[in-house]
Design goal:
The complex is a heterodimer of chains A (247) and B (283). Chain A has 247 residues and is mainly alpha-helical. In chain A, 50% of the residues lie in helices and 11% in strands. In chain A, strands 5-1-6 form a 3-stranded antiparallel sheet. A 3-stranded antiparallel sheet of chain A has the order 2-3-4. In chain A, β3 and β4 form a beta hairpin. In chain A, α4 packs antiparallel against α6. Chain B has 283 residues and is an alpha/beta fold. Chain B has 10 helices and 12 strands. In chain B, α4 links the parallel β3 and β4. Chain B is globular. Classes of the chains: A mainly alpha (247), B alpha/beta (283). The interface between A and B is large, with 49 and 45 residues.
Chain lengths: 247, 283
């Protein structure tokens, strides 16, 4: 009997997705179906292991494979690009109903953080034509936020999570992180204070002079004019040195 | 571009990320061409983007796709094809090939190759899809014979299927010699007669790779070990049947130090030289 192309494709995709034979066309040797199931699962597992080394080390081999198995069965990846499959895992984790989240409630945020490192590393964005150094910084200098950066806010201190530190509850305060790429393509991250977040937020909206920035921050905090000037200038100097702010 | 004459010859290697540093340390090109899966390198900036530009300036490139899912019944991903077209043009990629299989079908990607049934229905479907892809890309592509571990209710032979698809879609054939060997064991046919049944005039280039011996009657196409002797012998026979075409060594897993990969790619050169000298004697 010849099955239609439709029937054949349905059989194969279902057999591979569910990791078991759906039966209807299953007069094929089990050994050969198993080869396919293992090939496909090991392929997606290793593709994701590259992008989420911290999660894999925290979960350990067995629970990691269970997580990927749930993802594989429940989610339908849309991206044809291999470096973007990690984004599909993060999207899925954000609404997945899986028991592993009771033991590791920070997983969606940690996965997002690990993904953002890759996203910044591979962002298809070129370095702006700004060559100023710290010596060029004046009150009227225009400050541009590094366009290859992301400002992230997490409930958990995701940058500290490791096998030895797996918090069960969110931090008392939010964790603000900035991941950015330097001109030599190195990816860096830094934790930001609530005050620095205001600064970065303002520059994210638009480039401004140092003078403007001081006025805007003082205004938004109802602080007397000039009272935060020294603090802000120090912060800006630090950001220029790190290439978070370009001038 | 006519299919028979890709503007490259000799020996290529598949570019993998783990080889990048070692390759960049060489002061001269170490292969006649490189090949990448476009899905691994498209739309990447940062160090990956810079690396690709570095290689594209120094090496002729082929692209061997993985995600197009040419045999799937789901609609073609036109957005992907248009991005691909830009990528191929931007980096002067010499040729683009895909697998004669599919990798999606239940509403999502499965990221590996699922075998097509060798039926008239599948030929008609795939040939139409190849034609559509060639129209969108405005260039001829090649399809590759894939390794497969089980087949379901085939009406035709694999060779009949491949011949019909490339004829009906008027595309090139990327002949993977390791896949012929692996399939000949897994599906009990004679590799040499299969090879002789391939349309030599449509063959654009060859792939060779290592495989894994799962059992006496089951070989897995892993690209994770050295090319085995019967595959080298089959490559020599392929040259006899089709003439020498550009030939690429694929190594995707357990990647050894670069010099080991290059030493293995030199075996391809030796097979090509032997073929040249024996055909001169014959002439």
């Amino acid at each position: 009997m010849i099955f239609s192309l439709q029937q054949q494709q349905q059989f194969f995709t279902q057999m591979l997705r569910e990791q078991q034979s759906p039966g209807s066309l299953s007069h094929i040797e089990d050994r050969r179906l198993k080869v396919y199931q293992d090939l496909f699962f090991n392929n997606i597992e290793s593709l994701l292991a590259n992008g989420f080394p911290v999660i894999k080390s925290i979960l350990g081999e067995k629970r990691w494979r269970e997580l990927i198995s749930d993802f594989w069965k429940q989610h339908r990846c849309q991206t044809p690009y291999f470096p973007r499959i990690g984004g599909e895992l993060v999207d899925w984790l954000n609404h997945a109903k899986i028991s592993i989240l009771y033991d590791f409630p920070f997983l969606p945020e940690l996965a997002h953080y690990e993904l953002m490192e890759v996203v910044v590393d591979t962002a298809d964005q070129s370095w702006p034509d700004l060559k100023g150094t710290l010596e060029d910084l004046r009150d009227e200098t225009t400050l541009v936020l590094n366009p290859i950066s992301v400002l992230l806010h997490y409930e958990y201190p995701v940058h500290q999570i490791s096998k030895a530190f797996t918090p069960q509850d969110p931090g008392v305060e939010k964790t603000h992180l900035l991941i950015y790429r330097q001109q030599d393509h190195q990816v860096k991250f830094m934790q930001l204070s609530a005050a620095s977040v205001i600064l970065v937020d303002l520059l994210q909206t638009q480039a401004r002079t140092l003078q403007d920035l001081v006025c805007s921050i003082e205004g938004s905090l109802n602080a007397p004019s000039g009272s935060l000037s020294t603090f802000i200038k120090q912060q800006v100097q630090d950001f220029v040195t790190r290439q978070v702010i370009l001038i | 571009m006519s299919l028979e004459s890709l503007p490259v010859s000799g020996v290529g290697i598949g570019l993998r990320r783990s080889m990048v540093k070692e390759l960049q340390q060489k002061d001269h090109p170490v292969a006649d061409f490189l090949e990448v899966a476009p899905e691994n390198w498209m739309n990447l900036g940062g160090r990956r983007g810079v690396q690709f530009e570095w290689f594209a300036e120094r090496y002729p490139f082929m692209c061997h796709g993985l995600s197009l899912s040419i045999g799937s019944l789901e609609p073609l991903d036109r957005e992907f094809l248009l991005s691909l077209k830009l990528f191929l043009r931007r980096f002067n990629i010499l040729h683009y090939s895909e697998h004669l299989s599919y990798c999606s079908g239940d509403g999502g990607h499965l990221y590996d190759l699922i075998p097509l049934p060798f039926t008239d229905e599948a030929i008609k479907h795939v040939a139409e899809r190849v034609r559509q892809v060639q129209d969108i890309l405005e260039q001829k592509i090649s399809v590759e014979n894939v390794s497969y571990y089980t087949s379901v209710d085939n009406k035709l032979s694999e060779a009949e299927f491949i011949r019909a698809v490339v004829e009906e879609s008027d595309c090139g054939l990327l002949l993977d010699v390791n896949n012929i060997y692996v399939n000949s064991i897994n599906h009990r046919y004679d590799a040499e007669s299969f090879l002789k049944g391939m349309p030599a005039e449509r063959v654009t280039y060859f792939h060779v790779a290592g495989h894994y011996d799962e059992a006496d009657d089951l070989k897995i196409d892993t690209h994770g070990s050295a090319v085995k002797d019967p595959v080298w012998e089959l490559l020599a026979q392929a040259y006899q049947h089709c003439g020498i075409k550009p030939t690429l060594l694929e190594r995707d897993f357990n990647i050894p130090p670069l010099d080991e990969v290059l030493a293995e790619s030199n075996i391809i050169r030796q097979v090509q030289r032997r073929h040249n000298s024996s055909s001169r004697v014959a002439a």
